[in-house]
Design brief:
The chain has 125 residues and is mainly alpha-helical. It has one domain. Helices cover 52% and strands 8% of the residues. It has a three-stranded antiparallel sheet with strand order 1-3-2. Helix 1 crosses helix 2.
C-alpha cells in the first residue's frame, strides 16, 4: 500500500480523485485545497521533527481546521468516509491528526515524503 503522502502527491500531479479512493462529488477547488493543506501540514511536521532533533523547544501539532472554510468541512466529512484519507486521518472537533492505529514509522515516512517531494513555488509580489 502506498503511503498517504504518495497518494496526495499523485493526486496533485494527476487531478484524479480516485487515487484517494474518493468517489463522491466534491469541487476540484476544495479537494485541491485539502491536498495542499495536508501536504503543507505534513511538511511542517517534518520541520518540527528536525527542530526537536536539534534541541529546539517545539512539539508536533494537530492540523487546525476552520469551520468557515468549505474545504475544511469537506475534509472533516472525508475523514469519516470510506477513502484513503479516512484510513489514515481522524478528526476531533476542529483538529486533524493521524489515526491512533497508524504506526510511528508510517507517520514519519509520510512527513519525510511531504518534506522532500512537496516543494510549492514561492509567490513573490
Amino acid at each position: 500500500m502506498k503511503n498517504i503522502a504518495e497518494l496526495l502527491l499523485e493526486y496533485w500531479n494527476t487531478a484524479d480523485k480516485s487515487v484517494l479512493g474518493i468517489h463522491q462529488e466534491i469541487k476540484k477547488a476544495d479537494l485541491d485545497a485539502i491536498v495542499l493543506g495536508l501536504l503543507s501540514w505534513l511538511k511542517l511536521e517534518r520541520k518540527r521533527e528536525i527542530w526537536i532533533e536539534q534541541g529546539r523547544k517545539t512539539k508536533l501539532k494537530d492540523m487546525e481546521l476552520f469551520y468557515d472554510a468549505p474545504w475544511c468541512c469537506e475534509l472533516i466529512e472525508l475523514s469519516q468516509g470510506d477513502n484513503a484519507l479516512a484510513q489514515v486521518f481522524s478528526t476531533k472537533g476542529n483538529r486533524l491528526n493521524f489515526r491512533d492505529d497508524i504506526s510511528i514509522e508510517y507517520r514519519k515516512e509520510a512527513r519525510d515524503l511531504a518534506y522532500s517531494k512537496y516543494n510549492p513555488p514561492m509567490i513573490i509580489s
